[in-house]
């Protein structure tokens, strides 16, 4: 059973989500092969050293390409995040990107309901 996140974890997660979303938006869709990338959720480990970043990607055909680009640029993204949250956090968490498939799942359910 997973322990619920502390208030500090939730605050840090919210701040990282907001700042990362801004960093990704500033890079523009061209940086991600024309795909729209949305930071849908961030979960931070209890020691604040790792941030699991869930992203949804549209169109879904570009998911693999965008996840690869995020993986290649994780150091640069963490560096930019560090410049933004450096005042609030002693250490900038390591970023681990995960694909958020809830939109695909919702679309799939919608398709099934139409039949």
Written description of the protein model:
It is a single chain. 49% of the residues lie in helices and 21% in strands. With 115 residues, it is of the alpha+beta class. The longest helix is centred in the first third of the chain and has 21 residues. The N and C termini lie far apart (37 Å).
Task: Summarize this structure as a short list of keywords or feature phrases.
single chain; 115 residues; alpha+beta; GMP Synthetase, Chain A, domain 3; three-stranded mixed β-sheet; 3 strands; 21% strand
Q: What count of helical segments does DSSP give?
A: 4
- List the helices and strands in order: HEEHHEH
Give the percentage of residues in beta strands: 15-25%
The overall number of domains is 1
Which stretches are low in confidence, meaning pLDDT under 50 for 5 or more residues running? none
Please provide the count of β strands.
Answer: 3
Strand order of the largest sheet: 1-2-3
CATH fold field value: GMP Synthetase, Chain A, domain 3
Structural class: alpha+beta
The termini sit apart by 37 Å
Largest sheet: 3 strands, mixed
CATH architecture: 2-Layer Sandwich
- Give the mean pLDDT: 91
CA-based gyration radius: 15 Å
Helix share, percent: 40-55%
Q: Find the CATH superfamily.
A: K homology (KH) domain
CATH class category label? Alpha Beta
Shape: globular
């Amino acid at each position: 059973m997973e322990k619920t996140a502390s208030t500090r974890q939730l605050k840090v997660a919210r701040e990282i989500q907001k700042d990362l979303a801004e960093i990704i938006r500033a890079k523009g869709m061209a940086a991600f092969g024309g795909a729209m990338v949305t930071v849908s959720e961030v979960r931070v480990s209890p020691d604040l050293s790792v941030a699991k970043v869930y992203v949804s990607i549209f169109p879904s055909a570009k998911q693999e390409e965008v996840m690869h680009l995020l993986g290649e640029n994780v150091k640069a993204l963490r560096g930019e995040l560090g410049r933004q949250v450096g005042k609030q956090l002693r250490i900038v968490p390591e970023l681990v990107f995960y694909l958020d498939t809830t939109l695909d799942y919702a679309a799939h359910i919608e398709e099934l309901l139409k039949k």
